[in-house]
Amino acid sequence: MCWRVIPQNSGADYMEPQVRNQLENLKLDRSRPLIVTDTDEVIAYFIAGLERFLERNGYWLDLKSFAITGNIRKRGCGEISSQEQVKSLLAEFFMHDTEALDPVEGAAEALRTLNKRAQIIVLSNVPATAHAARQRWLRRHDMDYPLVANAGSKGLPLRFLAEQINAPVFFLDDLPPHLDAVAEQTSRVSLLHFIADKRLAALAGPSQSCHLYTSEWSDAQAFIERKLDSQGF
Fold first, then answer.
1. Which of its termini does the chain have fewer beta carbons within 10 Å around, N or C?
2. Pair 151, 125 in one domain
C-alpha cells in the first residue's frame, strides 16, 4: 500500500540525498545484529488512524483492495477521491495525526526484548515535516529508537545498512514492493512481511520475497530469536 506519493526519481536504484545523510549519521555497531522496522502497520496502526481522520473530514475508506488511492470516498455521495485529493488528505493526516496512531500490540515489548541482542532502527516513509512528530510518538510508546525518514524504495537503504553490519540483519515492512526491492539489492537480509491490520493482511497475501508473513509480534520475535540462536548471536 502506498501511503505517500513517491518522488519521480525515487526508483529502486535511487536513494534521496537526505536519506543517505541520515543513514551515514547513524552510530552502528558492526558486530551486533540489526533489526530495521517500518512504522505504519508494523509498530503503529496506520489504517485505523487514517480512518478516524477521514471520518472527521467527511470521507471514508472503502477497503476493497490493498491500496489507498481509489479507495477513499466522500461521505454521502460515495464519490472516489482523485489521486491529487488523496495526496492532499495524506499530507493533512501526517501534519495533524502522526502522533495520534495506536501502537501495535506487543511491538514495544518484543523490540525491548530483542534490543538486548540487536540494535534497532526505524525506517519509515514519513514526510520529513513529520519526522519530529513520529520520533515523539516512538518515545511516548516506549520505542525510542533512531528514526530515518525515508523517501521512495527501501532497497538501497537496506543494502547500505547491511554493508555496515557483520551480523544478521532483519527487515520488517508491510509493503511487498519494499520487501521485494530489498531482496533485489541484497541477499543478506531476512525479510519479515508484517501487516498488523488483519483486514489488510487478508487483501495482500505474503510477499514473494519474504521469509515470514505475520500480523503478530510474537511470531516475528520468535523468528528473529531462532535466527540469532542458529547463528550464534
1. C
2. yes
